[in-house]
């Protein structure tokens, strides 16, 4: 495992917030990174020559040219259907995830650090899940409160004692990372259920190469194209024992799901059928798909459906999306479901707070990637601290995703603060709080030219018998000035993420 | 149309999801239907401009859309009929509704159709969705129909050039041939109403310009001129549209191609359930080949067209039952073939009508 931290291998951010080599004219002449860590201009002193080359090329572009390319990129994404879908009363409306064409760059040492940290984390998460669904030593040893795990709404009793192939529960993981003012990578949250966004990583690269071939030319990058193949291999590896040529499928809620494009993308990249619940049936605790030649066996299911919808017999009886009898077939070991059922307990925001201790417990290693300092409001000290410092903290509900229902203290009005503190006192166990991390920024094409905008990073890890991490990941960017919320549902966009090949 | 099992593919070939087969067939049908409707609207507009008075009424009648049409409209005016058939999404037979349906099917097929196919359909169906009343004014309609026709043809070309030729393309072709076979009988039927009044003897040279227009709307005018020279009798034109073995939209051509595709399913993919359906198509072809166009007209052209349409509907139903049954069949047993309908005897018109 690498031991890289930013302080050892990176530059010190300049105090003025202005990189030493700011050009006097061109696109970068007006760019300032403020007091934030800039992904492009701060990643090395002296700047890596390839990053400097990229910056010079961008700098030489007239603003109108860059805008024309941005418009071309967006039109192409729309026409190609690289979109998510929102609904009005009458129509399904396709929207693109806004794409900013200034890439975000990671150097090799930075990437090796992130990669090692993600692998460590995935390993610990899978060991944790095996443990809590078997002997529960982590609870017996008091590492994490029993109630937090067993009483968690995502804890799945049907998983108790089930030996999942390879011990892998989280086959596809997305770890949300941010960088603070010093450039240190911190884990914001784990996504071990059905993390999305990987299609954008690959499509963004294609878009960059289509609309900015001159800008990217000659800069050697780690490829992102093998994701589908890796995923297909991993899903075959964890198919039930004794199946020679396992049939893998991707289970999607269907064409009306907002992430349908990604499901299409992944099915295509893996070369496997994209099925809906109605395409699958179970017979004698085995799963089949309906084909023109009758029923054909299915062995490995990459599902993009939440636990609750998977099987109306086992969970929500009103769900029309799932497959009756699927959980029974799973429990008999006749089919593999990826990610496993009941992984939500491991990426829960309350469990997150214990992750450093969980890593220590199973691996006897220090976490390579640190957590953001986290206060658990379910604990009296955590609640007291949070209430006393509400205006300085980010408070998150533990059950939600998509950036909903959170409070960013420093940006909140007095009224919002007092409203929120009432909510907190009513249901403290539903919240955690963290200091506001001054997320790193990246030059981004805005109204006036290149401006700094906050970004995060979601690397994707694929685990069959071993773990592989897709080089780079999804860089989400908060397009509103000053905003720290990068979620696509809250006005976020994305960037191509480059990992320099050497 | 040749062998469709790729010798270099991993063995055994991947089975085709029933839903994909169904969507593929419907995608082809809807795109053909859109093209055909655009042709009919275009040609009617030309008819009406050149003096025919009830051209718009005939379209409504032939689609049996009177009831739904009069729910929203008061009279057969050009504006109202065009609006009804082009932009009104509430009308399931409008181009807007068909384009939406084609789009939904193509969305389901995105995992296996080419990116080019989806991109063109995406742009085209968004264009149709955004059409407003101003885009279909009488002065614009011919240009619009031409554009729609060309977009459908672009789709056909991209499909030909990019869709991998395995089962999914066979089902796509089945949809196209079924739809073309169905549409040519509808096109003939429209003109039957307006062009073949009872007092006009079969074989008389009535209203040449309108018959030429009919051929043009099926993109068959010049081919007809070339192979049929100066013969412009209605029976010859109907004979050409029904029985030409070389004309891509004739009934006989499409029945033959339909037969080829169903044979491919049985031969290349061992889908034995297509055997029964093949028999029905063979029967249909036999009925067609056993009569001259004049005999068909004498015994009732409209009834013949109706009968063909209902048989094609049967073929469609049997395909659905065989390849995407509502209740999945574990070990598929071949259901006994339903009795074939007796074919219309051209000696008695009443007997023909009783079968429609």
Tags for this entry?
heterodimer, A: 502 residues, alpha+beta, Dna Ligase, domain 1, five-stranded mixed sheet, four-stranded parallel sheet, 23 strands, globular, B: 356 residues, mainly alpha, 15 helices, 67% helix
Describe the structure.
The complex is a heterodimer of chains A (502) and B (356). Chain A is α+β, with helices and mostly antiparallel strands and 502 residues long. Chain A has helices at 6-9, 49-60, 63-80, 108-132, 137-140, 146-150, 198-211, 213-216, 227-237, 260-270, 307-310, 326-331, 349-352, 355-363, 380-388, 414-426, and strands at residues 83-87, 92-96, 99-106, 172-179, 185-191, 248-251, 274-275, 280-283, 286-291, 294-297, 300-303, 336-338, 370-371, 375-376, 393-397, 407-408, 431-435, 441-446, 449-454, 460-463, 467-469, 475-478, 492-499. In chain A, strands 13-5-4-20-21 form a five-stranded mixed sheet. In chain A, α4 packs across α14 and α9 (227-237) packs across α10. Chain B has helices spanning 18-49, 55-62, 66-72, 78-86, 95-109, 115-129, 138-162, 167-195, 208-217, 221-228, 234-243, 251-269, 274-289, 293-323, 349-354. Chain B is mainly alpha-helical. Chain B contains 15 helices and no strands. In chain B, 44% of the residues are buried. Classes of the chains: A alpha+beta (502), B mainly alpha (356). Chain A binds chain B through residues 79-81, 90-91, 94, 255, 260-261, 264, 267-268, 273-276, 278-279, 281, 283, 288-296, and chain B through 14-21, 89, 104, 107-108, 110-112, 115, 118-119, 122-123, 129, 167, 171, 265, 269-271, 323-324, 328-332.
